[in-house]
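Objective 1.3, modelling of assemblies. Example input:
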Amino acid sequence: MIRRHPLAEQAAEELLRRIGSGEWQLGQKLPGETNLAAQLGVGRSTIREAVRELAGRRVLESRQGSGVFVIAYQAAEDWDQVLRKADITEVLEGRLAIETEAARLAATRRTPADLRTFRYTLADRKKASEKSPDDWYVEADLAFHRAVITAAHNALLTELFDTFVPRIRRAMLDMLKLDHVHRHRHDQAAHEAIADAIRDREPELAAARAREHLSAVRSIVS
Amino acid sequence: MIRRHPLAEQAAEELLRRIGSGEWQLGQKLPGETNLAAQLGVGRSTIREAVRELAGRRVLESRQGSGVFVIAYQAAEDWDQVLRKADITEVLEGRLAIETEAARLAATRRTPADLRTFRYTLADRKKASEKSPDDWYVEADLAFHRAVITAAHNALLTELFDTFVPRIRRAMLDMLKLDHVHRHRHDQAAHEAIADAIRDREPELAAARAREHLSAVRSIVS
DNA sequence: GAAACCAACTCCTCAGACAAGCTGAGAACT
DNA sequence: AGTTCTCAGCTTGTCTGAGGAGTTGGTTTC
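Predicted structure (tokens):
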């Protein structure tokens, strides 16, 4: 049998499996390290590393002198993982939800500094849309969109967007390889229109324009 | 309660700090175990546990015979943690974004089964709104809102909502302790109106009603 | 030039020793 | 009796030395 994973990783998986199966309840203590090592047939330091790995994932917590305790039944949703596998259409719909609302909020909360950022990022985006490599263009586009989110002054929305960014970036790069047409034309104008609506404090207009733009993107990929 | 950090945890934090500061770039190799141990003034097994912890958090990856590599600049956002600390107003704005869009999508995608779920959950909610304890009422309310999200048939939005649920639940319970007035009156009607708009395939109406309802909730807490 | 070889690196695992901290039972005290 | 003190025996924390196993890059060999 080929061992693809180190013993410590296998031990961590085994512990996670047993926790999931209800062998140890929430808040309960696991058997001691020496005991576990004997049970799984590995050395004590191997068990320690397995426990440490699950501690990093916030499933276990070890207290010196007391023991190792279960603090969560399952690893917290790894959004990176979820997003990596998610259908790009679903991600775009999530993004649409967040960004539309962010545009609406931004129209009432934007500061002069936000407007300055809009100008800079839009200028960058225009330059990049002309003859830069794809990844520059994508970064410039994302920078503007992030500026819109930031202007909503809601840290939760910003973090949500940042979580989505890697997935969106990959999807955009894939898209650009297939379809170079839509890169130049009305796109820059659509972005400027969103910024204008936010600048003019028009929540509904900003939201509508953001929705329209992202709906267009969604209809390209689906 | 004071909490001492074991050396291995401190070492993990130090490594994370150095990675964040750009000392080692993405994909780059860290110095060897013996080297790092000497640098931080700890034993080799301590370094190994620190690395294992960061591996559990998907920041590092160690390959036997090759070395330890950086695979992410920062630990994936622990959303449980983020939400626990987040301002409830921000969470409600996030929920508003997701749920409004979900209502819109649901109006075009809802199945007969979804409509049945609406009827059941609305009936439960009505019953619970009359004389059940607070936590029943909250669960019944959340069940209906989850049904709306589910009817959008977008797994990402559903997972997003589920991530928010614990935080929303706590906030609702806190709210009900302060203000028992708004529990009965127009609330049930507002929920039924959302369900009706989805049933009648009216995306804009469904979205508007969801927005209105959640805006009302937000204005109560802020 | 290409394949085989090898040495020097890396992480992986184990065992043993001791330190540090917690817990509960019993002794000592009030 | 009730409270506090003490300590033995458990726990995890840390270090070290010894090999095992895999990777890498240079050297030798053909």
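The first strand of chain A starts at residue 60 and ends at 63.
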